[in-house]
Amino acid sequence: MKFIHLSDLHIGKKVNDHSMIDEQRYILDRILNGIKEEKPDAVLISGDVYDKTTPPLEAVLLLDNFLNNLAIDGLTVILISGNHDSAERLSFGAERMKKSGLYIKSIFDGNFTPVTLTDEYGEVNFYSIPFIRISDVNHVFGTEIKDYSEAFAFAVEQMKLDTSKRNVLLSHQYVAGASFSESESAVGGIDCISKDVYAPFDYTALGHIHKAQNIGSERLRYCGTPLKYSASEIGSDKSYTVIELLDKKQGSTCCEMRFKTVPLIPLHDMVKIQGSFEQLMRTKTKENGFATEDFVYAVLTDNEYVNDPAVHLRKIYPNLLNVSYEGNGRTAAFYNEITAGKIEKQTPFDIFGEFYTKMHDGAEPDPQQQDILKAAIKEVWGEDGEDV
Ligand SMILES: [Mn+2]
């Protein structure tokens, strides 16, 4: 039984206000080609299909297109919702679509009927638990559980697993021990689930964490996002996971399995570039190790204030995502120029005034700003502020 594990597509996502839709269209195309080559029995998508509960039109069209392209003879597609999806919206038409081999499990209702596929080694049961909170379990089962792992374990118990068969779970949760990046959002420390609750499954296709990783073993795995969605993912490789479940010997807890990842090369990479404004404006193309159309996080090392660097940098790097300054762009030399040798003789009002002027290309604070400043100084130092 061969299946492909995907998750966290986040279709419709914007990174720093920059639409990723073209990148997503491209990468889904690559994945589709991979699926056609690999000829799996199933494709599993473990949540965060969309980036928003009300995805934009282009995102809906793209998912529609992807799922339609997956209507390949003999291919089963199973999809759960993540914390970014609207469970109800995603479940549109779910009942009817089962007939065509597309199983959407986005509403947690206590029904754990698996999707069962058969190969030469027997049956494989694919179970789904969309993203849930403790309150979902308590709501559905009338329990009063307070612990996340306990709530999840309770749900798993209700499946009454036949462990002599091969069992697979799709789950979108934060499993304790996973290392995450910046783009997950709403991944909290208390929300994590012990990996032990996943032990009864031969394989768990996890979603939620954007960095591909095994949790303890390759049977409990985050496949990661198909694209980099934050600066913290620069330098990390993206891929999808291909799993093959083989024989489950009588009496053994897990079946034999094969595991591999297939690298995903994006249309445009995400890179960090660093240097002075002048250097970055001079740096142009691929000779320097990156294409100008890459998604760029620029880090300026200038000591001097640069006016509107993004406006100019964007002429060379059209997919510029962010400009930041190393050390705030104002090194010790910058501050020394203001303060050296004279700070002790100045009042806080004078020091701030000079600082303000430096930061605003020579403009002085206007009378209203001066009043605010005086009031603030008075609040900190009292009337004595003038003499400090
Ligand atoms: Mn996600």
Describe the protein's architecture and organization:
This protein starts with a strand and ends in a 7-residue tail after the last helix. Strand 4, helix 2 (57-69) and strand 5 form a beta-alpha-beta unit. The protein folds into three domains: 2-263, 4-Layer Sandwich (Purple Acid Phosphatase, chain A, domain 2), CATH 3.60.21; 270-329, no CATH class; 332-386, no CATH class. 27% of the residues lie in helices and 24% in strands. It is an alpha/beta fold. The longest helix has 18 residues, at 21-38. Helix 1 runs parallel beside helix 2 (57-69) and helix 10 (348-359) crosses helix 11 (367-381). The protein contains eleven helices and 19 strands. It has helices spanning 21-38, 57-69, 87-90, 94-97, 134-141, 148-157, 277-282, 309-316, 332-339, 348-359, 367-381; strands spanning 2-6, 14-15, 18-19, 42-46, 76-80, 102-105, 115-119, 122-129, 166-172, 174-175, 192-193, 203-207, 213-215, 217-222, 239-245, 257-263, 270-275, 295-300, 320-325. The model has no long low-confidence stretch (mean pLDDT 89). The strands form five sheets. The protein has a six-stranded mixed β-sheet with strand order 6-5-4-1-15-16. A six-stranded mixed β-sheet has the order 7-8-9-12-14-13, with no helix packed on it. Manganese (II) ion is lined by residues 8, 10, 48, 82, 84, 184, 208.
